[in-house]
Amino acid sequence: MRVAIVSDIHGNLRGLDACLADLAQQGGADTIVGAGDFCLDGPRPREVLARLVDVGATCIRGNTDRYIASEDFGEEEPDVIRWQRTALGPQWVAWLRALPFSHTFGAGRDALLVVHANPKNDDEHVWPDAGDDVLERLTEGVEPRTIAFGHLHLPYARMWRDRLFVNVASAGLPKDGDPRASYALLTQRPGGWEVKHRRVEFDVERVAREIVESGMPGAKRNERVLRRHRYKQIGEVVP
Which of 11, 36, 45, 168 is within CB 3.0–4.6 Å of 116 for a Cys-Cys bond? Predict the structure, then answer.
């Protein structure tokens, strides 16, 4: 089985389409998974959801999807959530509300578990240097050895004890110093899952203009985040 995972699209249809085009060039996948955070901060949230449905993606909920579909806005301003809800319309908001927390391929220890942030909640980052105490807490009672997720927009694969952690990063809002969109291909092999990260160029300038022209609250901030394409806290190690 071959699974393609796209996450953290954040309303960037051009980034998503670039990933899908690259996936087709790579020979496609048996299943496409959308691992959450589909809409917030980007100019074309409705089109992103429609595209995922069109390609038959299996989708799970991210923390920002929860903000849009509930009364828990997290740290987001109410006007930001209202703009997204208006742009989506009530049917798509209901679609987000109905998304599951996770999806599993296979059974037992050799299964692949896909979540948004980690197996326990949808908003706690798993950094690539997370300590044993963090990983023990987040995997307690979790049977699958391979866990794929996004939320943290940094692609990596890490072996920890007998587990494989795969961060597929962001298809729409990269933050590791590389402006290209990111997704991952996971292929089931005897005894485990093979990981391949893909980086794909998209028209950053065009998306930046779409953000400003959309009229969304905080458009200038969102444009700067897209152009900077890095977390502030890694600015000293990522030029």
Answer: 36
